[in-house]
Write a structure and sequence with these properties.
The complex is a heterodimer. Chain A is α+β, with helices and mostly antiparallel strands. Chain A has helices at residues 4-11, 35-38, 156-185, 189-204, 218-224, 242-252, 255-270, 285-306, 318-340, 347-362, 375-392, 395-398; strands spanning 27-30, 44-50, 65-73, 79-85, 96-98, 103-110, 115-121, 128-129, 133-134. The longest helix of chain A has 30 residues, at 156-185. Chain B is 24% helix and 17% strand. In chain B, helix 1 runs antiparallel to helix 2 (22-38) and helix 3 (97-116) runs antiparallel to helix 4. Classes of the chains: A alpha+beta, B alpha+beta.
């Protein structure tokens, strides 16, 4: 019940991306229908062009149904074409690139009662928009089939809420790192290990892990990266942060080195600009795009790095790590829930249930190397994480920012 | 004479006569007996045999033709990619330069026979266990077999007095920033790339070679790979479903191969290396579960091609050449797309082009329940630094790195070819 069936029912109508992969030509499939319903339908071919100034000249009356639009750029610049719901300007197709002299195809459904227009965006110019056409019949363009695009403005509030959470967690983290350094100064190994774990879990609950998707840039990797890719492995100078201290405390039992390495770690965390997430808000579509990715990519990292045992440098706290990753994911989901819910009914409650299932599967989260867990137990965790990931995978597409609407 | 006795007799006759016919003859005999012994009794279906289990390809005509073993260059490099292959890294256990030369001579003898095919000596093992494992039948088919031998930098340490002859660029493979190299699956003194018409052909060759060289070298790591059939046409797909290996320099043209592939006489390379080439193997794990949770639009932006057709994002078919000049801002093919970073198609980067020859691998299940799948990336180049390393540096941090993890492989120097029946691998190095 928890796996795909719940989601399958509610998301079938969305079918993000469709079955993709046009047979031989460049094509984007937004035939936003359930595979059973849409697969056998005939798609009518309609050419749409950009002539260098006008977008889709000749865009005129069409009946409801599925269309293969053949996009052609007769201008001199590469452009991006998007089919819009004319009533609110949201995208009903992905933005499709077309180069001069070339064709591209894009598949979409036009719904009875809907109103549609084309946007042609050339680099560093205002987008050209076509006339709007009205599809005969009753209904609206914002059907259950197509998720409306997100405008950048809609992400400001969720991001502001999330930033507040990040700031609070960061100050907690700084206190925990001070406790770590204090324990090491007092040569208290047990105390240092406890402080390390508390601090590491705080860091993970920021959804950073090694910072691959973070707003902290390379700092993320310096704070929590593994030695993978470092020439000289764990003895490399570029191997810094939580895992280096972990190795000191559990592998090397070297308190003096740990103290120096923990000092470096505390400095790295101090250097995070608390406003990093929001400082350049107005025009960071890209940054926001990567922010919404975290909704599933935090757990992707957990699956890849932690459940494989790859990021365990001796503390064997992988289960607790997964718990913190769940916390971080839940925070992301909470921030975006209001935007996700109308676009994918059922996704948010399903994901919440599945996150709770992960929490249940990792308990008791005592210190144990994950590869040493009995297979049955490990598989239960893998299944819970895998199920949540499959549910969360569409979020980045759902949250795609429609550039034509900002 | 009982049925059983007759069967033995027939089998022996068959072996003494037409070797290839023996199996078929024996099988027919068994079937005939079963029916005969049924007599007038009611047949018990549980005792009946079904039709012979010969669903797999058994037609010897399906084997690929032999690839010539002798030549200026080794086979298995510009040879069209065969369907199956294996990559085996060995450390050399030979104790002296003379023993090392013996090892290469033995390797030559084995490879010369296996790639040509034929009846192995003493197939029945009358006085000793048989010389051939027999997994390919009594007559070994050539089946397009190629055996390509490369030397690792560790072979040029102090053991054999050849340290001064090390190819100029040959070093241990150092990790790139996105790598996760496992030392037990990286490097080695010697690499065997064995490719052929089917997996059993390749693994049979490895088994024979390992048997013949047991005291001279020992296995470090082994990967088996396959090249998928065209789906539905054109270049085969990798596990990410994208056609892989569409663009390669035309190394059949000597004007190209002399600049990009084969080490030439003169220059800073030792003389013995002429006709050889650097062989890069990268075992690249692919996180296909993660990949499958990514929209096709994002997948295509990462690669720079359409998943279905293999065409570049500004084209129609896989053979279309992307036009980067027309798209300097990366509006159609992003500046970070894999195809664009690896081969920017500029005058300045043309001499960094590499010749790729990769295979897919499947290796069971990962610790976290994921499928353990990936790519045995192979490329050959005249100058490791100018070509492969330069390309790989351009790819550091590309968006695709989240979905892959290079975990092993190594840098090797693929020897010049064995010229004729009197020549042997590495003769120019060790004579």
């Amino acid at each position: 019940m928890r796996w795909s069936s719940v989601l399958g029912a509610s998301l079938a109508a969305l079918a993000i991306g469709g079955c993709g992969g046009g047979a031989s030509s460049k094509s984007t499939d937004t035939s936003t229908s359930a595979p059973t319903a849409g697969a056998s339908k005939q798609f009518r071919i309609v050419p749409v062009s950009y002539d260098g100034t006008a977008c889709a000249p000749g865009w005129s009356a069409l009946n409801p149904g599925g269309y293969d639009f053949v996009l052609q750029d007769r201008g001199s610049d590469a452009i991006a074409m998007t089919l819009l719901n004319a009533t609110d300007g949201t995208a009903v197709s992905p933005t499709t690139p077309v180069t001069p002299g070339e064709r591209a195809s894009m598949r979409a459904h036009l719904h009875a009662g809907g109103s549609y227009e084309w946007s042609c965006q050339a680099p560093s110019q205002a987008a050209a928009t076509s006339v709007a056409i009205q599809i005969p019949g009753a209904g609206t363009a914002t059907s259950a089939y197509a998720p409306a695009g997100i405008s950048i403005v809609q992400l400001y509030q969720p991001l502001a809420d999330y930033t507040k959470y990040v700031s609070a967690t960061l100050s907690k983290l700084r206190g925990q790192l001070a406790a770590l350094v204090g324990s090491l100064r007092a040569r208290d190994l047990a105390g240092a290990r406890a402080a390390w774990l508390a601090a590491h879990l705080s860091w993970l609950s920021l959804g950073q892990d090694d910072g691959a998707y973070g707003a902290f840039g390379n700092l993320g990797n310096e704070i929590d990266g593994t030695a993978d890719g470092d020439v000289g492995a764990t003895s490399s100078r570029s191997f810094t942060g939580f895992h280096r201290v972990e190795l000191d405390l559990w592998g090397r039992h070297d308190l003096a080195t740990a103290r120096a390495d923990a000092g470096v770690l505390a400095k790295l965390v101090d250097s995070i600009n608390q406003q990093a997430l929001s400082q350049d808000l107005p025009d960071t579509t890209v940054a926001l795009d990567s922010w919404v990715l975290r909704c599933h990519e935090i757990l992707e990292d957990a699956l890849r790095d932690t459940l494989s045992g790859n990021d365990d440098y001796g503390s064997h706290t992988g289960l607790a790590t997964i718990g913190a990753d769940v916390t971080a994911t839940r925070e992301m989901l909470h921030a975006l829930a209001g935007l996700i819910a109308p676009r994918a009914r059922g996704l948010v409650p399903t994901a919440r249930e599945q996150l709770a299932a992960i929490d249940a599967a990792i308990k008791p989260s005592r210190a144990v190397p994950i590869p040493a867990l009995p297979q049955v137990r490990r598989q239960r965790i893998d299944a819970a994480v895998g199920a949540a990931l499959e549910t969360l995978a569409p979020v980045s597409e759902l949250m795609q920012i429609s550039t034509t609407n900002s | 004479m009982t049925d059983l006795d007759r069967r033995r007799f027939l089998r022996n006759v068959g072996l003494a006569g037409a070797v290839a016919g023996a199996g078929a003859l024996g099988a027919t005999g068994i079937g005939a007996e079963a029916k005969a012994s049924g007599g007038g009794q009611t047949a018990d279906p549980l005792l009946e045999d079904g039709p012979p289990g010969n669903q797999s390809v058994a037609d010897p005509a399906a084997s690929m033709p032999a690839v010539p073993f002798h030549g200026t260059n080794q086979a298995g490099i510009t040879t069209p990619r065969q369907p199956a292959g294996c990559w085996a890294s060995f450390n050399v256990a030979a104790g002296s330069r003379a023993e090392l030369a013996d090892l290469f001579k033995t390797l030559t003898t084995e490879a010369r026979f296996l790639t040509a095919g034929g009846t192995p000596p003493d197939p029945d093992g009358k006085y000793a266990p048989p010389t051939d494992s027999g997994t390919l039948g009594e007559v070994v088919p050539a089946d397009g077999l190629t055996i390509t031998i490369g030397l690792g930098s560790t072979l040029f340490d102090g053991r054999f007095g050849i340290a001064d002859s090390r190819p100029a660029r040959l070093v241990p493979m150092q990790p790139f920033p996105n790598d996760d190299l496992d030392p037990t699956e990286t490097g080695g003194d010697l690499l065997l790339q064995i490719c052929g018409g089917s997996p059993d052909t390749a693994i049979h060759a490895l088994r024979q070679i390992a048997k013949a060289t047991r005291g001279g070298m020992q296995l470090n790591w082994l990967y088996e790979g396959f090249a998928s059939p065209a789906r539905p046409s054109g270049v085969p797909r990798n596990h990410f479903a994208f056609k892989d290996g569409i663009v390669n320099p035309d190394v059949i043209d000597p004007a190209v191969s002399s600049r990009l592939l084969w080490v030439q006489n003169g220059g800073q390379e030792p003389a013995w290396t002429a006709g050889g080439t650097y062989h890069v193997v990268r075992i690249i794990k692919q996180f296909i579960e993660f990949w499958d949770r990514v929209s096709i639009a994002e997948q295509q932006q990462m690669i720079g091609r359409f998943r279905g057709s293999g065409a570049p994002l500004d084209g129609h078919s896989e053979t279309d050449v992307p036009n980067y000049v027309q798209d300097p801002a990366g509006y159609v093919i992003p500046l970070t797309a894999h195809i664009r970073l690896s081969n920017p198609r500029t005058k300045a980067t043309e001499n960094s082009r590499i010749f790729r020859r990769s295979y897919n691998y499947n290796l069971g299940v990962d610790l976290n329940g994921n499928l353990n799948m990936g790519l045995v990336f192979n490329c050959f180049c005249q100058d490791l630094d100018r070509q492969f390393v330069a390309v790989q540096k351009r790819l550091i941090g590309e968006p695709m790195v989240d979905y892959i993890s290079p975990i092993g492989g190594g840098y090797f120097f693929a020897l010049p070819g064995v010229r004729d029946n009197n020549d042997w691998y590495a003769s120019a190095l060790l004579s």
